[in-house]
Amino acid sequence: MILKVQYKNHRKYIKIGEASFEVFITEVKEKFSIPLDTLLKVTDETGTEVDQDVFADLTTSKDICFIIENECDSSYSNLSSPSLTDTISMSSSSKESDSDGFNPFKRIRREEALQDSAAKDLIKEILLSKPGGTAVLKEYEDTGTICDSSRRQMVNILAAHMTETEGRIPQRITKEKYALGIISLFPSLKDPLSPKGYEHFYDSQSGSGFLAWRLKTIQRKTKLAVNSDAPKTGTTGGPTLGRTISHLDNQPPEESCKEAVALMNHTSDKGTILLKMRETFEYRQRLVHNPETASTVLSVFPRLLDTKGLILQDFSLLFGPETAARLLEKWPSSYKAKVIKEAEALTSTPFLQRLLKSARDQQGQLSSDDPAEWDSDMASLLLLLHILPPQSPGRKKAQKISVRQATDHLVMFHKSCRSLDEHMEMDGPRQPYLLASGTTKQAISNFYIVMDKKLIPCQGKTSLAAFDELFKVHFVFGVNYDESLSSMYTFLQTTVYSIDVGITKESPKVKELRAKFLNNV
Questions:
Q1: Torsion of CA 341, 342, 348, 349, to 10 degrees
Q2: How would CATH label the architecture of 2-75?
Q3: In angstroms, rounded to a whole number, what is the distance separating the alpha carbons of residues 296 and 298?
Q4: 5-19, 391-405, 485-499: range with highest mean pLDDT
Q5: CB of 407 closer than 8 Å to CB of 413
């Protein structure tokens, strides 16, 4: 959509892909060359303030012009300022006690000390809760300082935490609080020659410093992901949403988790592996949702690559056994027949007709002269992909792929007489997908999930059970859906599994299909 925007005395048109307030602010800053950490206020031409709750509704008006203003900085200069260490000018009379013995200067110094302590405690708490943070604290305790690599790791941890809690563009006050907390927790890192002592971590005047630079890198990468490669799924609900797990027993500390990982890597007892994987679940989830460590999960937990059932266990720990069982329980009885009926009304193609025949063939009775495309369950899932086909890509140069092409993003057949390594060498990088190995598509002996050029064995022997594990992999590893399969996966997520209903962005087609199925239309 195209919006009219005014900043100071200049008006420009800005194009955004979706009615997201955060994306809008980012594009405004880029269009008008406004520093990323600048706080902006948005109003309409009458001066009425616009916030993210009403922004999407206002974008439908063709006549509106959004007015952009810098937030007033004067509010930060008085005693109620959220700026943590701004110099406070005091007259000589205010430094002296009044007749009642009240000294405002001492009160201000006491408040500053409390702020220093709160910032220090915040940084310590974050480092203790994140992988690698305890090593930074231990190094400072042993040596009185930290080396460059540890400082970079600390900055990466803190910047990631900032973006997790406040989004891509944290507030200036937050960045100052983190910088203050660093030098309060690690006094030897304070610069005695700078006004505040922490400008090398964050300088609000120039927008520079270790924290600022790391945040800019994160903002640049996430903006590229939003504008180019990220699927148009919901911005809140879905596989990448970090979740608080309240029903688990107390999980062991990080050091104990590392010991459990070492034990798992040297035992072949499946019961022990399942137990230790359960005990290290929260630790693994922290790795998954930390951008710095997400790609290391399979190397840290290699038993995922040779022990069946671990994906199912992790998903059940995330959502509970009732949610975990919904696809296997509901698809055959509630959805499969409806999908076949809906697909029968689609424009006919040879591939669609073969899938319809296979989906109707519940007993696998098609003759060799009229072979099935897949077994009945897999065929019905691929019919759902026909009903919810790949959406038009948001990128100008990208080409929309066909349903036939999108099928290869979901499942690929591999002749069991050929080497699996041969397939892995030939196949390009892609989101997780199923690799079905067998003599024919109707006689599959093993299913694997391919992710990051590695094979995760499926516990399920049927195509429906294997697909169930494929869906769950996205949540276990915090991986976005393949863009061409996004509508299909989102429908299954919200309608069948009942996950993040109401907080996940869904296309009108997904909502329409759900209404038909739930109302038995």
A1: -100
A2: Roll (3.10)
A3: 6
A4: 485-499
A5: no
Q: Indicate the domain borders of the chain.
A: 2-75, 104-229, 254-319, 323-518
Contact in structure between 130 and 286 (CB atoms under 8 Å): yes
Tokens of 270: 């499946």
Residue 460 and residue 465: Cα distance in Å, rounded? 5
> Phi, psi (5° rounding) for residue 127?
-65, -35
CB 293 within 8 A of CB 287: yes
Burial of residue 213 (number of CB atoms within 10 Å: 0-12, 13-18, 19+): middle
For residues 105 and 121, give the distance between their C-alpha atoms in angstroms, rounded to a whole number.
25
Task: Tell if the pTM clears 0.85, that is, is over it.
Answer: no
Residues 272-297 as b/e (b if ≥16 CB within 10 A, e otherwise) read ebbebbbbbbbbbbbbbbbeebeeeb
Report the distance separating Cα 520 and Cα 342, nearest Å: 11
| Angle between helix 376-387 and 463-476 (nearest 10) | 50
User: What is the DSSP annotation of 364-407?
Assistant: ----TTS--SS-HHHHHHHHHHHHSPPPPPSSTT--PPPHHHHH
Task: Assign 226 a pLDDT band (cuts: 50, 70, 90).
Answer: very low
pLDDT at 318: 92
Q: Is 130 helix (H, G, I), strand (E, B) or coil?
A: coil
438-492 pLDDT, tens digit each = 998 888 999 999 988 899 999 999 999 999 999 999 999 999 999 999 999 999 9
Distance between CA 25 and CA 32 in Å, rounded? 11
- Residue 107 reports pLDDT greater than 70: no
> Crossing angle for the helix pair 172-185 and 104-129, nearest 10 degrees?
80
Dihedral over alpha carbons 174, 175, 180, 186 (to 10 degrees): 120
Q: How far apart are CA 292 and CA 287, in angstroms?
A: 8
- Nearest to residue 130, comparing CAs of 267, 242, 50? 242
* Among 316, 314, 325, residue whose Cα is nearest residue 285: 314
Q: What is the DSSP letter of 247?
A: S
Smallest CA-to-CA distance from 428 within 412, 444, 404, 446 is with: 412
From 322, 314, 308, select the one nearest 466 (Cα to Cα).
Answer: 308
Separation between Cα atoms, residue 104 and residue 329, nearest integer Å: 69
Tokens 């710095």, residue located: 292
